[in-house]
Amino acid sequence: MSLTTGNPAELGFDTERLARIDAHLKSRYLDSGRMPHTALLIGRGDEIAHLSLQGEARPGEALTQDHLFRIASMTKPVTSIAFMQLVEQAKVALSDPVTRYIPEWKDQGVFVSGGGEQPFMTRPPVRPMQIIDLLRHTSGLTYSFQERTPIDAAYRKAGFERFDGGDLEQLIQTLAGIPLEFDPGSSWNYSISTDIIGALIQRISGQKLDAYITQNIFEPLGMHDTHFQLPQDKVSRMTDCYSWHPREKMKMFDTGADTAWVKPPKLLSGGGGLVSSLADYHRFSRMLLNEGTLDGQQIIGRKTLELMTANHLPGGGDLTQHSKSLFSEAENAGGGFGLGFGVTVDNAATGVPGSIGDFYWGGMFSTAFFVDPVEEIIMIFMTQLMPSSTYPVRREIKTMLYSALTV
Fold it and tell me: What is the mean pLDDT of residues 319-348?
């Protein structure tokens, strides 16, 4: 699928100011050896105002728009949209107790003490975990890589950090024996919740997660390069992926030529398992900007999407007030969370130009996207460097993008 750019000036952008973004990415991140490559798409409505492809996908191989990227947590909005399709069909409700679909968790308690060599001591939750808690990360679940509590450690011991703790059904069984970190609905904690949403899609729809999402999102949208398992005939298009290193700056994490993503995944991760392309994620983002519809295909209802992109943090507020760990930093001031998306609720508090109501997310390999319904802007950024917190590139791009807006 070929991406074609329009006239930036006709789409309301200053061409010279857009070029500043490319120069900044090149000088600060590519020439300095901090990132292997950068792909940036800036859209207005259904048109593309700016497309930049810099650096090498693999050593000696220039990055092109055909290359594929591990998008990690940018999988979460896709999985959340898929689940909300089932809500629209009245097959499940946001207020339903999770135990209606996962009875294995009926005795799951909230952590009091223990861990390591000591047995866990728990208490009953103040209220049951609801479906909405999974979508907005207020479930009491966590991520193993947070390394903050005995519950995080229990996740690592179970193999969740390497996604080798079994398939989605085994994941449910294992979690039944690990306490919740806090009472559902009382706090926000970035977590494995969206993977559980993927497991619920399987149980409710009767289809495997990859089959359901392919049938109901990828095929209708023409997203033919987005996969949980990379097809063998597309391995040549896969980018190299790096992790940050204090001395070398970048250390190889997963080569494109021998990528682990070509193997059948033991766990179909609705929270972070997808590979995608710039063009495919642009089609997904255009669907979001167009209120759930693209090229005559209605993926989600307009009002459903409106609900998903509202702030659902308990009692309102932003991530700095509600987050238990990750995303509680000051730079997340003004950011709320919806049902699968981060949402800007106080633009002044963010300290970055933008619009109240824009929604966004990123992935651990430093990928990012946002959709601004007010200005009708789409931004998609792809690179392959973990962790995503290494550099403030997302903030820099957003600031420079809005500085180029003329109309």
Answer: 83
Strands 385-386 and 241-245: what pairing?
parallel
Is 35:27 a contact under the CB 8 Å cutoff?
no
Query: Strand 385-386 relative to strand 110-115: parallel, antiparallel, unpaired?
Result: unpaired
List phi, psi (to 5°) of 160: -65, -30
Dist. CA 277–CA 3, nearest whole Å = 11
Query: For 201, what's the count of Cα atoms within 13 Å in the CB-facing half-sphere?
Result: 31
pLDDT of 277 strictly over 80: yes
Q: What is the pLDDT of residues 19-54, one digit of tens each?
A: 999 999 999 999 999 999 999 999 999 999 999 999
CB 153 within 8 A of CB 160: no
What residues form DSSP beta bridges with 320? Answer: none
Q: Where are any strands of DSSP class E within 20-67?
A: 37-44, 47-58, 61-62
- For residue 108, which of 116, 96, 120 has the smallest C-alpha distance? 120
Q: Whose structure tokens read 């100011």? A: 17
> How long is the chain?
407
- Give the pLDDT confidence of 207-243 residue by residue, as tens digits: 999 999 999 999 999 999 999 999 999 999 999 999 9
